[in-house]
Design a protein that fits this description.
Rossmann fold; alpha/beta
Length: 428
C-alpha cells in the first residue's frame, strides 16, 4: 500500500509538492457563497442565522442558546465511564497546559526608568465544534482547556444542532467538563460570521478556534483581521521514524490511524530497514480487514502513503525535518536522546508505546497542530494562543532630560517634527 521512495532518484521538490497539494483549492462558488453568508449575518443577525439553520440543518430554532436543562439531559444520555474518561483526560490536559503559563516582567534601570511586559488573557474566545454524524468531544477539551488556563473569561461554543434541534450529548458533556461559558446551536459559515460580528443573541468574540468543513475554514479565512483565528488546518498527516527493532504491527496500526481521517491524509514510514517496510506492508493487509473506514484508508494510503529507506536514523530525522509533519512518531531505541535533532514537527511521540491517539485523547499534549509543512513556523494550539503581551514604560523627569536630545535627533531625521516636539516641550 505504501509507495516506496528512492530519495536518490525521486525529486524532493516534486514529492513535497505532491503532499502539500493535498489541500483542496477553495472553489470560486464556495468563496462567493461564504462571503454572502457573512455579509447577510452581519446585516441581519439572528434572522439570517435562523434562515440558514433551517436551510442547512433542516430545523427551525427560536432560541439558539443551550439551556441548563438541555445540558443536564446530555449527562443522562452519556455513559458514566465515558464521562469519567473525559474528566481524567481533562486533568491530564490541564496539567500539561498549566506548565505553559507565562509571566510578565519588569526591568529597573538608572535615573528612575522602568519597563516591562504584561501577559493578558483575551476577553472572549469562540470555539467551533463540528456536529452532524461525527462528534468530537476531544476537540472540545483541546480547544477550551488552554483558553481556560490562560484566563479567558468568556468562552463561547457553537455547534450545529442535530435533526431534532438538540445538542449532541457527547459534545454537551465535554463542554460542561471543559468549562464553556455558553453554548449556541448554530454551525457552518453562518456560525463563524456570528462569532466574528455578534448578533442579537450571540456575542462577538476576539478569537475563533476549532476545526470545520471547507465552508467553516473559508469563513475563518475571510473574518481573519476582524478577529484572530487559530489556523487553517489541512488534511491530517503522520510520519513514523523506525529502526530495525520497531514492531511492524504497531507501525501499520499507527499509519492507518491517520489514514482513516480523510482520503487526503498522508501516512509516511521513514526507516533504515527494508525488511521492516515489507513487514509493515504485510501488517497493513492483515489489519485493514477489520476496520470500519477501510475504503478511506485504502485510498489515502494508495495516494499519499509513502515509505522511504534511509542509511541511518540521522538521515531519517533529516527527511522528517524536510516534511515538517503534523505528527511524528519516533520508534527507535534511544528516541529521547535523539529528540534534540528534530527541528520541525507539530508534536512528537516517543518510543514504541506512544501511538499518536494517546496525544489525541488523553496524554495531555494538544492535538490541534500545524499541517502541510507549516510546523516549520507554526506551533500547536496552547495557552499562548489565548493571551496577548503588552509592554509598559516609565521615564522620570531626570531620565527624559538626559535622553531627550537623542530622541529628538532620531525623530527629526525621520521628518517627524511633531514627535520631536512632544519631547522638546518637556526639556524646557
Amino acid at each position: 500500500m505504501l509507495r516506496l521512495i528512492n530519495l536518490e532518484n525521486d525529486n524532493w521538490d516534486i514529492l513535497l509538492k505532491e503532499l502539500k497539494d493535498r489541500e483542496e483549492e477553495v472553489k470560486e462558488e464556495v468563496l462567493k457563497s461564504v462571503s454572502n453568508i457573512i455579509e447577510d449575518v452581519r446585516k441581519n443577525g439572528d434572522k439570517a442565522l435562523k434562515s440558514y439553520t433551517e436551510k442547512f440543518d433542516r430545523v427551525m430554532l427560536d432560541d439558539f442558546e443551550v439551556s441548563i436543562e438541555e445540558l443536564d439531559e446530555c449527562f443522562m444520555k452519556v455513559e458514566k465511564n465515558f464521562i469519567e474518561n473525559l474528566e481524567e483526560a481533562k486533568e491530564n490536559i490541564e496539567y500539561y497546559h498549566n506548565a505553559q503559563k507565562g509571566r510578565g516582567f519588569i526591568l529597573n534601570k538608572d535615573n528612575g526608568i522602568f519597563l516591562g511586559q504584561r501577559v493578558i488573557p483575551l476577553d472572549s474566545v469562540g470555539v467551533y465544534v463540528p456536529g452532524g454524524t461525527a462528534a468530537y468531544p476531544s476537540s472540545v477539551l483541546m480547544n477550551v482547556i488552554p483558553a481556560k488556563v490562560a484566563g479567558v473569561k468568556e468562552i463561547i461554543m457553537i455547534t450545529p444542532p442535530n435533526k431534532e434541534g438538540k445538542l449532541n450529548p457527547y459534545i454537551g458533556v465535554a463542554a460542561k467538563i471543559a468549562g464553556v461559558s455558553k453554548i449556541y446551536k448554530v454551525g457552518g459559515a453562518q456560525g463563524i460570521a456570528a462569532l466574528a460580528n455578534g448578533t442579537e443573541s450571540i456575542p462577538k468574540v476576539d478569537k475563533i478556534v476549532g476545526p470545520g468543513n471547507v465552508f467553516v475554514a473559508t469563513a475563518k479565512r475571510l473574518v481573519f483581521g476582524k478577529v484572530d483565528i487559530d489556523m487553517i488546518a489541512g488534511p491530517s498527516e503522520i510520519l513514523v521514524i523506525a529502526d530495525e527493532n520497531a514492531n511492524p504491527k504497531y507501525i501499520a496500526a499507527d499509519l492507518m490511524s491517520q489514514a482513516e481521517h480523510d482520503r487526503l491524509a498522508s501516512s509516511i514510514l521513514v526507516t533504515t530497514s527494508k525488511k521492516l517496510y515489507k513487514d509493515v506492508e504485510k501488517e497493513l493487509e492483515i489489519q485493514i480487514k477489520d476496520l470500519d473506514r477501510k475504503e478511506i484508508i485504502e485510498e489515502s494510503l494508495r495516494n499519499y502513503g509513502k515509505a522511504i529507506i534511509c542509511n541511518s536514523i540521522e538521515e531519517c530525522i533529516e527527511v522528517s525535518n524536510r516534511f515538517a509533519p503534523e505528527h511524528l512518531e519516533f520508534m527507535v531505541d534511544n528516541s529521547m536522546e535523539l529528540l534534540g535533532k528534530v527541528r520541525h514537527a507539530g508534536s512528537v511521540f516517543l518510543g514504541n508505546n506512544t501511538p499518536e491517539p494517546v496525544g489525541d485523547y488523553f496524554g495531555g499534549t494538544n492535538h490541534v497542530l500545524p499541517t502541510n509543512g507549516t510546523a516549520r513556523f507554526y506551533s500547536a494550539l496552547s495557552v499562548d494562543s489565548f493571551i496577548k503581551k503588552s509592554s509598559f514604560l516609565y521615564y522620570s523627569e531626570e531620565a527624559i532630560k538626559r535622553d531627550g536630545e537623542k530622541i529628538i535627533n532620531i525623530a527629526n531625521k525621520e521628518g517627524l517634527t511633531a514627535h520631536a516636539n512632544s519631547v522638546k516641550v518637556r526639556l524646557k
